[in-house]
Each structure stands twice: as structure tokens, then as C-alpha cells.
């Protein structure tokens, strides 16, 4: 074959190879290729974002749960005021001829929380009820002033946006009794025990409580242990 023919064939083949290479390079920048690469990068970024989100949630969740845990209430003091009913659950004589009628009671108290679930309370209660069927000179109505110190055990539970707090308490103090319309007033040692529930909205709460005050009624010829039960609803403020 003549040399010129060989050169022409070689040049033609080189030209074809160059066209193919240019076509392949151009294919890299076609919309379909760009879309494919973009889609792959997008999926990769999504996977990384999800991984980072899960990692962040796993790191933050324990802290958030501890911060919202009702068992770790940060308050140190709780003050409360309440009002409700009062009645003597025991008659003053064995036959039941003399008995207490339904009355009312109001109270204030302050709690100091030694630990989130353990506290001490001091408080006072003013109650008034009547003794019916008793041989008394003057009116049968009595004012009763109770003042006491108690230990409080509570168990906070998460409830919606607030905290539900059932509790029990018990302690000791005294009860002073005064017969209206007379100068007869006396004071007796008294124990007390009770239970209640509180629902707290942040620092403000509402409370329902029942307490039994136990003391000896030993006047007017009577001598019998009494159980004065006060059931009240009130409001609380914690700080």
C-alpha cells in the first residue's frame, strides 16, 4: 500500500477516536447525567442529615427527660391556703347522745422540701362546729384552733403539661377549744394524719386534702378521744 494511503487511513481513524472521546466527554454534561449526579448527592446529604438528627436526639433526650422529670422538682418551699368542711367523727359520750354537727375549717401552711419527695410542714387550722345533745351552759358552738408540725411524703407524676402529686402526712401539735359565749378555753395535745392530692401548673397548684386531728375531749363530764376530720380544697404556691 502506498504511504499516502496509510497516512490517510491513520488520520481518519484518529479523527474517529477523537470524535468518540469528545462525544463521551459531552455526555458527562448532559441534563440526565447532571440530574443523576445531583440525585445521588441529595440522597447522600439526606442520609447524613438523618444520621445527625438521630445522633442529636439521642444525646439530648436524656437531658430533656431529666429536666421534665416530676420526681426532681426544683422547689424548696410550698405555701398553701385552704377552706372546706369539718366534722367530729366520734361522739363525746359512749351512748352517742352528744355528737358533733357539720362545721367549717380554714387553714394555712408552709412546707419545706428536704428532698424532692420528703418535706416538713407547719400549719394552723381554724375550725368551728357545734356539739348537739350535750348538757352545756351557754352555746354549744366551739372554735377549734389546731397548730401542728408534720412530715410529708409525696410522689410526683407527670400529667399533661402539669404535675400530679399524691401525698400523705402525719405529725403532732395541739388543739385549743373555745366555747362561744363563755370564758371556757383549754388546749390538748393532738396528733394528726391525712392524705391529699395536688395538681401543679408550674409554680401554682390546686390541692384537695383530708386530715384527722386526734385529741382527748375531757370537759363537761365527758372524757373521750375525738377524731375531728377536716376536708379542704385550696391553692398552693411553690418557689
What does the model show?
This protein is of the alpha+beta class and 239 residues long. It has two domains: 3-68; 72-238, Porin (Beta Barrel), CATH 2.40.160.20. Helix content is 26%, strand content 51%. It contains two helices and ten strands, in the order ααββββββββββ. The protein has helices at residues 3-27, 31-68, and strands at residues 77-88, 99-100, 103-115, 118-132, 141-154, 157-159, 162-179, 185-201, 204-217, 224-238. An eight-stranded antiparallel barrel has the order 1-3-4-5-7-8-9-10. The radius of gyration is 41 Å and the shape is elongated. Mean pLDDT is 80; it is low at 1-6 and 56-72.
Give a brief rundown of this model.
The chain contains two helices and ten strands, in the order ααββββββββββ.
Which structural category do the helix and sheet elements fall into? alpha+beta
Task: Give the CA-CA distance, first to last residue.
Answer: 107 Å
Q: Biggest sheet, open or closed, and with what strands and sense?
A: 8 strands, antiparallel, barrel
User: In the CATH hierarchy, what is the architecture of the largest domain at level 2?
Assistant: Beta Barrel
Cα radius of gyration in angstroms: 41 Å
By CATH, the topology of the largest domain is Porin
Strand neighbour order, sheet with most strands: 1-3-4-5-7-8-9-10
